[in-house]
Amino acid sequence: MSFSEDNLKGIVLALLSSVFIGSSFIIKKKGLRRAAAASGVRAGVGGFSYLLEPLWWVGMITMIVGEVANFVAYAFAPAVLVTPLGALSIIVSAVLAHFILREKLHQLGILGCVMCITGSIIIVIHAPQESPITSVQEIWSMATQPAFLLYVGSVIVLVFILVFHFAPRCGNTNVMVFIGVCSLMGSLSVMSVKALGTSLKLTFEGKNQLLYPETWFFMLVVAICVIMQMNYLNKALDTFNTAVVSPIYYVMFTSLTILASVIMFKDWDGQSGSSIISEICGFVVVLLGTILLHTTKDFERSSSFRGSYASLSPTFSPVSPTLLTRLCGGNGELMKHDQDMSSEEICIR
């Protein structure tokens, strides 16, 4: 097993990103609890006292550092390596929540964590070596090749159909509509983030890429795609159960991102069939572990919720969670404390 220097940097940055982002969920939740205890008004019922809580801001800064590390990781390593490693942030938050917040981690949840780690190791071992890129114009030539233009055209057509035909008719009843828009636009945003990150990396190395209009075009695409993702991710999570949205979004977003990267950057060119199959197997193991972890977390939360409140009111029924995830619209502070964690974990990686 050998890594290029850039791949190694990308792996380290992706791992650090997961640690920072996973930790930020716990820190912010501690800050929310402390603010609620001091003011008597929870964020979930409209309180904003957490904005005056230093611990919450520590969590926010930690999360931003993690997102920056994730952004930079794309400049060094292929998306087929960086994107699946984002699942490790879920493990970090689940383990820290178990020890710090005393939120029980189900035995099947532990199995999910082990599966995510095992799958990530398989992906890292068989990760492709990326060809060196010397200018943004080289990336532009990759982005304008017929195969990728066909992919972009297909994404745009599908998004228009989902937004203007299916969303008004069944957007509030079919979870795949909003998640489909998020995932399709997410795959384009990651490609643009990688292009922009590589351009900035070359600029810092002394090869100024800001002089080329292609760099600014990629920046514009990033802004448009991320705004659409934030909008439809919030709609999906505000309409449907988080435990349903989280795994479906992770599967679709990561799968489409890998497909887009393979088409645009030709990540699998030069790799043996066995290495490609191993990467796919590792990815499937990570997906199954993520789904298992989310499912068991929801089971534990529902069980404890019923146990705590059933005796208080026989007519009590839990309210559907409102979602503003991480940077996707407010970091989940408007959710009830029992639902903060799972909603924040699924923002775009």
Describe this structure in a few short sentences:
By secondary structure, the protein is mainly α.
Can you describe what's shown?
The protein has 349 residues and is mostly helical. It has twelve helices and no strands.
Identify the notable features of this structure and list them briefly.
globular; mainly alpha; 0% strand; disordered C terminus
Query: Mean of the pLDDT scores?
Result: 81
State the distance separating the first and last CA atoms.
26 Å
Structural class by helix and strand composition: mainly alpha
Strand content: under 5%
User: Considering DSSP H and I runs of 4 or more, what fraction of the residues is helical?
Assistant: over 70%
Counting H and I runs of at least 4 residues, what is the number of helices? 12
Largest sheet: none
Low-pLDDT runs = 304-348
Radius of gyration, whole Å = 20 Å
Q: Strand tally, please?
A: 0
